[in-house]
Write a structure and sequence with these properties.
The complex is a heterodimer. By secondary structure, chain A is of the alpha+beta class. Chain A folds into three domains: 31-138 and 202-255 and 260-293, Aldehyde oxidase/xanthine dehydrogenase, a/b hammerhead (Aldehyde Oxidoreductase, domain 3); 297-469 and 634-786, Aldehyde oxidase/xanthine dehydrogenase, molybdopterin binding domain (Aldehyde Oxidoreductase, domain 4), CATH 3.30.365; 484-630, Aldehyde oxidase/xanthine dehydrogenase, molybdopterin binding domain (Aldehyde Oxidoreductase, domain 4, 2-Layer Sandwich). Helix content of chain A is 27%, strand content 23%. Chain A is built from 19 helices and 28 strands. In chain A, the strands form seven sheets. In chain A, strands 3-5-1-12-9-10-11 form a seven-stranded mixed beta sheet, with helices on both faces. Chain A is globular. The termini of chain A are far apart. The relative contact order of chain A is 0.13. Chain B is α+β, with helices and mostly antiparallel strands. Chain B folds into two domains: 3-77, Ubiquitin-like (UB roll) (Roll); 87-150, [2Fe-2S]-binding domain (DNA polymerase, domain 1). Chain B has helices at 23-30, 87-94, 104-117, 123-129, 141-150, and strands spanning 3-8, 11-16, 49-52, 55-58, 71-73. In chain B, strand 3 and strand 4 form a beta hairpin. The longest helix of chain B has 14 residues, at 104-117. The termini of chain B are far apart. The model of chain B has no long low-confidence stretch (mean pLDDT 96). Classes of the chains: A alpha+beta, B alpha+beta. Chains A and B meet through helix 1, helix 17 and strand 28 of A and helix 2, helix 3, helix 4 and helix 5 of B.
């Protein structure tokens, strides 16, 4: 029987009621008395020298409070990059400055040049149009290959080239890798692009800041996945403010998908301007601004080579990737193509020799950073595409080829720096074959063919490294932050509990799922537990939500803090019952003395903690509040197998996703309804990447996909219902809940399944010359490929 | 600046707006009804859908002045009289039809308009009707399921919750 309460129960979400009644509190819903509005004048060219900014006419426009340019920010720091990657020669990456407002040059369409603060948003925008810019347009570098050529225009004059770093992981001895390839019976090579995407959370970014002259305190409300990280970066690196005088609040946030991790110029600007103007300042991005100012995702160009022996065992893998950084290094940009990508190239397979080469490149485009999956989708896509191609070249079943090469013994040390603690890839594939009804595919294909359509089946696996991350390891790898998390469990006198967490919920349902854990540990009703998040003045210093880490890392901190609570409560209960605390048992919210009928209720103990008339004051302090910081011992390794069935219209090249099945191993699960929803959403984004989405710049660096008119977001009629199975569960071995994280899996596992299915469909129609089609697999690309 | 008056969720409202003020701006900034969300600037995303004289309308796509004298319904007025969730809202909660909640007001308002004109929509009907509402979180699975459930149809056969 499914549980109806506690860990494993599909509890309906408590936060839904406010969202369904219009009572959510998103950042744009926050208005501070007396606030002014800022509009950013952004570059409409990709690369130019700023010869002059004449703000005189604009400053005289109605309602204008003040106009800021780069000159106002010469005394403050730029936006920092949080991860220093060291190249193959041990040299740190090139790290150009990233100013709040452009200094001397603009480097991408959307680069902010000036900021107009006015009484109303409309006045700010009107005045911005009256600013006269003298821009001397320069050639733009957009294509990564061209950017790396000798003599290419440099995005940053002070750097030696447009190469941020040239990085290698795995077997660094080129000759050893080549020897493995030379000895192979078969080598499959594939060149592919993982196209640039825009994360597009439905809530555009917003920032509102106020400054109190009386207390010299700042409050910044911002659309963030990690308010403490924003406060630290903004205070310590950008504005030079004392952290304790700055409160950062991320209230209800309308989706993040990575792009709300990063510290952005607009946040620092409104905070700076609130003091400079002595008025609260609010900024609300339009969607058009979001397209040219939110950090974008993916944008890798890769050549991957897979070597197999005569028995079809994988013997070596080599990749060469160019990763687009855009014009500046966004907060975690440098880590995405390296430690979040290269380390995953082993996938679910035993491949003894792996070499991953990555060149990160500056171009005159919007900065690129983590987007749902961040590096892991790029790794999965190339690996699972090249395996599929190999299977086709060798004439073997793609599922069989994968199974033959699966890692089956754990723990497993990969050649690319990770240790997988647990997994059951065959068991998960078994689940997929059932969920996807693989045996029924032939009949469905025959039915499609009767209607003149080509039907294809695509299967792939994925593995991801989540729950980021052990601080000591990421520190060695260049991270400039720790990646623990924190929780404070505050038991109130009457027994209800407030849990202050470093994780941030922007759709993941923490307010419902986290109490399921605490309530089960104590044996009380979930309604007695409240989750507090998103406000640095209330929560302990936690690192926030990304990388599928909330439950694995912050949830573990919450468990540790709750354990401390229980231990202390047992001491109080023991005192009340005149017993030894080692004899106290807690079950269903009652403390009992083992082997007796003596008991006290949870509420009696909590009240005693705060009204300590009869209390062991010489042994323990009154009160019942505990904090725990949890730093994971390893990453977690969710893994799974996905299957997609498509129909291709041979007349038009139009691809329709007919069926999609996912089998995931997330370890233990707290709320299966929420987990299913996370997988659904990831698959929706993955199908979007595979078939529809692409962020496109022209050769001059103009953003051609600057709105939903041009950037194809997946809609309800682009996707089918999904079959999701997460009954394959190998619990994580190193965190107290045995959980692995589920937030990114869908987006990581689904794109190769779709593309594999399209190729399968075309081959079934006799178009065996089609080895690959780059995403998005649009009708025109499919049709062109079909024509040969 | 011109004066505008309209009934919103059964209450008479009026205000002074600029000619260029959108209905979404009037609702959010003048009336404080912030449940109506603005997710784009090209009338594509549907987060701002409200009902104007009974029809689903993207409130970012009409001027406040165009709604002068109209009867407007927003997400804030959708719950039952006793404050409990209405059938559509309850179905969204029961079937996990929302995650971050930002697109949700528009989804609920569109769903209400759909069910008014098509009380027993098929899966295809729902998906096509929602063409103008973008959700980035759910992959639409549970939204479609919730709307079909709200229409009284048995959705237990649809793959996992």
């Amino acid at each position: 029987m499914p549980k109806d309460t506690g860990i494993g129960a599909a509890k309906k979400r408590r936060e839904d009621v406010r969202f369904l009644t219009g009572a959510g509190n998103y950042t744009d819903d926050i208005n501070v008395r007396g606030q002014a509005y800022v509009h950013f004048l952004r570059s409409d060219v990709a690369h130019a020298k700023i010869n002059g900014i004449d703000t005189s006419a604009a400053a005289a426009m109605p309602g204008v409070v003040r106009i800021f340019t780069g000159a106002d920010f010469t005394g403050v720091g730029g936006l920092p990059c949080g991860w220093q990657v060291t190249d193959r020669h041990g040299v740190p990456m090139q790290e150009p400055p990233h100013p709040i407002l452009a200094q001397g040059k603009v480097r991408h369409v959307g680069d902010p040049i000036a900021a107009v603060v006015a009484d109303t948003y409309e006045q700010a925008r009107d005045a911005a149009e009256a600013i006269v810019l003298d821009l001397e347009e320069l050639p733009a570098v957009v294509n990564m290959g061209a950017a790396l050529k000798d003599g290419a225009t440099k995005v940053h004059d002070d750097l030696t080239s447009n190469l941020c770093y040239d990085w290698v992981l795995g077997q660094t001895d080129d000759a050893a890798v080549q020897a493995a390839f030379d000895a192979a019976a078969h080598v499959t090579t594939l060149e592919l692009t993982n196209q640039r995407l825009v994360a597009n959370p439905m809530e555009p970014r917003v920032a509102v800041a106020e400054y109190s002259r009386g207390t010299e305190d700042y409050t910044l409300y911002t659309t963030s996945q990690n308010p403490h990280v924003i406060r630290l970066l903004m205070c310590a690196f950008v504005l030079g403010l004392p952290e304790h005088k700055v409160r950062v609040v991320a209230p209800d946030v309308g989706g993040g998908f990575g792009t709300k991790i990063f510290h952005y110029a607009e946040e620092a600007f409104v905070t700076f301007a609130a003091k400079a103007c002595n008025r609260p300042v609010k900024w609300t991005a339009s969607r058009s601004e979001a397209f040219m100012s939110d950090a974008q995702g993916r944008d890798h160009v890769t050549k991957i080579e897979l070597a197999l022996d005569a028995d079809n065992n994988f013997v070596a893998l080599r990749t060469n990737t160019m990763a687009n950084m855009g014009a500046y290094l966004s907060t975690f940009s440098s880590s995405v193509p390296t430690w979040l990508h290269g380390t995953l190239m082993a996938g679910n397979y035993r491949t003894p020799v792996i070499q991953v080469n990555v060149k990160a490149v500056f171009t005159n485009t919007v900065p690129v950073d983590a987007y749902r999956g961040a590096g892991r989708p790029e790794a999965t896509y190339q690996l699972e595409r090249v395996i599929d191609k190999a299977a086709r070249e060798l004439g073997v079943d793609p599922i069989k080829l994968r199974r033959q090469n699966f890692i089956t013994e754990f723990p497993y040390d990969t050649p690319v720096a990770l240790t997988y603690d647990t997994g059951d890839y065959n068991g998960t594939m078994d689940k997929l074959e059932v969920a996807a009804d693989i045996v029924g595919f032939a009949a469905r294909r025959a039915e499609s063919e009767k209607r003149g359509k080509l039907r294809g089946l695509g299967v792939n696996c994925y593995i991801e490294a989540c729950g980021i991350a052990p601080s000591n390891i990421v520190g060695m790898l260049g991270a400039r932050a720790g990646l623990y998390d924190a929780a404070t469990v505050r038991v109130n006198a009457t027994g209800s509990i407030s849990v202050m967490v470093g994780a941030h919920s922007h759709g993941q349902g923490h307010e419902t799922a986290f109490p399921q854990v605490v309530a089960e540990m104590i044996g009380i009703d979930e309604s007695m537990v409240e989750i507090v998040h998103g406000d640095t003045s209330k929560i302990p210093f936690g690192m926030g939500t990304y990388g599928s880490r909330s439950l694995a890392v912050c949830g573990s901190a919450m468990v540790r803090a709750t354990e401390k609570i229980i231990n202390k409560a047992k001491k109080i209960a023991a005192h009340l019952m005149e017993a030894s605390d080692t004899d106290i048992e807690l079950k269903d919210g009652r403390f009992t003395v083992a082997g007796t009928d003596k008991s006290v209720a949870w509420g009696d103990v909590t009240l005693t903690a705060y009204v300590p008339h009869n209390f062991p004051l010489t042994e323990i302090e009154p009160g019942l509040e505990e904090t725990a910081f949890y730093d994971p011992a390893n990453f977690t390794y969710p893994a799974g197998a996905y299957a997609c069935e498509v129909e291709v219209d041979p007349e038009t090249g139009k691809v329709t996703v007919e069926r999609f099945a996912a089998a995931d191993d997330f370890g233990n699960i707290i709320n299966p309804m929420i987990v299913d929803g996370q997988v659904h959403g990831g698959i929706g984004q993955g199908i979007g990447q595979a078939l529809l989405e692409s962020c496109v710049y022209d050769e001059n660096g103009q953003l051609l996909t600057g709105s939903y008119m041009d950037y194809a977001m997946p809609r309800a009629d682009d996707v089918p219902f999904y079959a999701v199975d997460h009954s394959s569960q190998t619990p994580c071995t190193h965190n107290p809940l045995g959980v692995k994280g589920c937030g990114e899996a869908g987006a990581i596992g689904s794109p190769p399944a779709v593309v594999n299915a399209v190729i399968d469909a075309l081959h079934s129609g006799g178009m065996t010359h089609v080895a690959h089609i780059d995403m998005p697999v649009s009708p025109s690309r499919v049709w062109s490929a079909m024509q040969g | 600046m011109p004066q505008v008056s309209m009934t919103v969720n059964g209450k008479a409202t009026s205000g002074t707006v600029e000619g260029r003020t959108l209905l979404s701006g009037y609702l959010r900034d003048h009336l404080g009804l912030t449940g109506t969300h603005v997710g784009c600037d090209t009338s594509q995303c549907g987060a701002c859908v409200v009902h104007v004289n009974g029809a689903a309308v993207k409130s970012c796509a009409i001027l406040a002045l165009e709604a002068d004298g109209a009867d407007v319904a927003t997400i804030e007025g959708q719950a039952n009289a006793d404050g409990s969730l209405n059938v559509i809202q309850q179905a969204f909660q029961d079937h996990h039809g929302l995650q971050c909640g930002f697109c949700t007001p528009g989804m609920v308002m569109s769903a209400a308009a759909l069910l008014k004109e098509n009380p027993k929509p098929t899966e295809r009907d729902v998906r096509e009707y929602l063409e103008g509402n973008i959700c980035r979180c759910t992959g639409y699975h549970n939204i479609v399921k919730a709307i079909m459930a709200a229409s009284g149809q048995d959705v237990t056969a649809i793959a996992a919750e």
